[in-house]
TrEMBL record:
<dbReference type="InterPro" id="IPR030963">
    <property type="entry name" value="DHQ_synth_fam"/>
</dbReference>
<keyword id="KW-0472">Membrane</keyword>
<dbReference type="GO" id="GO:0000166">
    <property type="term" value="F:nucleotide binding"/>
</dbReference>
<keyword id="KW-1133">Transmembrane helix</keyword>
<feature type="transmembrane region" description="Helical">
    <location>
        <begin position="84"/>
        <end position="104"/>
    </location>
</feature>
<keyword id="KW-0456">Lyase</keyword>
<dbReference type="InterPro" id="IPR056179">
    <property type="entry name" value="DHQS_C"/>
</dbReference>
<dbReference type="GO" id="GO:0046872">
    <property type="term" value="F:metal ion binding"/>
</dbReference>
<dbReference type="InterPro" id="IPR030960">
    <property type="entry name" value="DHQS/DOIS_N"/>
</dbReference>
<protein>
    <submittedName>
        <fullName>3-dehydroquinate synthase family protein</fullName>
        <ecNumber>4.2.3.-</ecNumber>
    </submittedName>
</protein>
<dbReference type="Pfam" id="PF24621">
    <property type="entry name" value="DHQS_C"/>
</dbReference>
<keyword id="KW-0520">NAD</keyword>
<dbReference type="Pfam" id="PF01761">
    <property type="entry name" value="DHQ_synthase"/>
</dbReference>
<keyword id="KW-0862">Zinc</keyword>
<keyword id="KW-0479">Metal-binding</keyword>
<keyword id="KW-0170">Cobalt</keyword>
<dbReference type="GO" id="GO:0003856">
    <property type="term" value="F:3-dehydroquinate synthase activity"/>
</dbReference>
Length: 348
């Protein structure tokens, strides 16, 4: 898995596949915004066959029904193993496209071209692919690495503020599990200018951190679990809203998950309250609009706990959390139903 920052280097990697079919998987929004720009680069090279598949935009379409539609299109075109899927889009596209590549014809090559901040620093890297099933987040999936990842920061220049903030949630997660000083640096520089040297360094630093953790623990048996901070409650919240008429992004869910998992650390007496208060203050300085969604969880406690018991990281019938202990991160914090009910349900 290579991270590439320039098109000419990317296409040097892809040159050896000139006799392969090329499938571009994207959504309608990204297609309308970027497909001409992307094709200007890719059509400099001659391929056996190039085909574009567009899907609807949104987390609700990351499901088995979308997979079946894509499989039918691939079969109709008689697409064989000599094929590369180029996933052009955000986290939904890279998750879905990676999953399809991992099981179609027992596995074909795929490359990721992430177009959102969140997918650049997190979703497109690491080989975790998946779809939502039965209103549960990423319940079906695979570990299957992309051959190459092209990071084109020009895609970030047209992002809406809400999409930038969604990606910022993952940066905040990284900073809290690695180094609290990085959290302060992000808060100070949160007004984004992606041509800014500081942001270039921050993004590359966190990308390299994730690559390092994946190299040590690809299958998420130990140290890679650090990256799940904020995601146990965050994924439960997303899962709940998959079945309800309420829009919440992955980044929003993660930020809310981070805040409540920090609060859980206080209740377990492993985090000083003043640290939690400072982090919460800084987060709501940026995510002011999330305060209502943050408070709504108080009325969803029963549903959130129910969804948490389907989490992939659980051990036996207990919920496995990644938590902050003062200013350090720990994984494998196993809480049984009774403890969780007492700490989360009764005291929130």
């Amino acid at each position: 898995m290579n991270i590439i920052y320039q098109y000419n280097l990317f296409f040097q990697k892809i040159k050896k596949y000139l006799n392969y079919n090329i499938i571009i998987l994207t959504n309608i929004t990204i297609y309308n915004l970027y497909i001409k720009y992307f094709l200007l680069n890719i059509k400099k090279y001659v391929y056996k066959y190039l085909y574009i598949i567009k899907i609807y935009d949104g987390e609700i379409y990351k499901n088995i029904y979308t997979c079946i539609k894509i499989f039918n299109k691939l079969l109709k075109k008689k697409i064989n193993r000599n094929t590369i899927i180029l996933n052009l889009g955000g986290g939904v596209i890279t998750d879905l496209g990676g999953f399809i590549a991992s099981i179609y014809k027992r596995g074909i090559i795929f490359f990721n071209i992430p177009t959102s901040l969140l997918s650049i620093i997190d979703a497109s890297i690491g080989g975790k692919n998946g779809i939502n099933y039965n209103y549960l987040k990423n319940e079906i999936g695979s570990f299957y690495l992309p051959n190459n990842i092209l990071i084109d920061k020009n895609f970030l220049l047209s992002l809406k503020k809400k999409d930038i903030l969604s990606g910022l949630s993952e940066l905040i997660k990284y900073s809290l599990i690695i180094n609290y000083k990085l959290f302060i640096l992000i808060i100070i520089n949160y007004k984004f200018n992606f041509s800014n040297l500081i942001w270039n360094k921050i993004l590359k630093y966190f990308i390299n951190i994730k690559l390092y953790l994946i190299k040590l623990d690809y299958r998420e048996n130990n140290i890679r679990k650090f990256l799940n901070f904020g995601h146990t409650i965050g994924h439960a919240l997303e899962s709940y809203y998959l079945n309800n008429n309420f829009n919440i992004s992955h980044g929003e869910s993660v930020i809310i998950g981070i805040l409540y998992e920090l609060w859980l650390s206080i209740k377990l007496n492993i985090l000083k309250k003043n640290i939690y208060i400072n982090i919460k203050k800084f987060i709501f300085k940026i995510f002011k609009y999330l305060y209502i969604k943050y408070n709504i969880i108080k009325y969803l406690k029963k549903h959130i706990i129910y969804k948490m018991f389907y989490d992939k990281k659980n051990f036996n019938k207990n919920i496995n959390f990644t938590l902050i202990v003062n200013k350090k991160c720990t994984y494998n914090n196993i809480l049984n139903k009774n403890i969780l009910y007492k700490l989360f349900y009764k005291n929130i």
